[in-house]
Description:
By secondary structure, the protein is of the alpha+beta class. Helix content is 31%, strand content 24%. It has a single domain, classed as Aspartate Aminotransferase, domain 1, CATH 3.90.1150.200.
Amino acid sequence: MTKPKTQKNDASVDKFLAGIKDDQQRADCLTILELMKELTGEPAVIWGNAKVGFGSFHYRGKTSEGDWFHVGFSPRKQDLVLYLHGELEKQVALLEKVGKHKIGKSCLYIKKFEDVHVPTLKKLIKKAYKSPAIAGATIN
């Protein structure tokens, strides 16, 4: 079995976020950071080079095994990516209310935090935090 390339590490979350050049994106990341801290009760941890994650669970798939975070985010060139595991694509009613976004399998892509409906985003984060999406996952 292979292990994921992205691993949690001891890098400073504050230093990572302070290094975001775009003022709006940095402010949005700081807002998401506080929101996820509040909703999960977990400390923020850097995973790989550019992901901030909260909590962790152990999974074992057909070809890989490792640890991953319940919820997290990453500033990307085009969008701010929120990692919301838990079958995000099935959250149709909430996604219709969350505001401007795009989705991937377990990723919510937003341009600006001000574009989202915060109470709905909170519901999505809570659902993702409580429900690891990977079948057979064991929670640490």
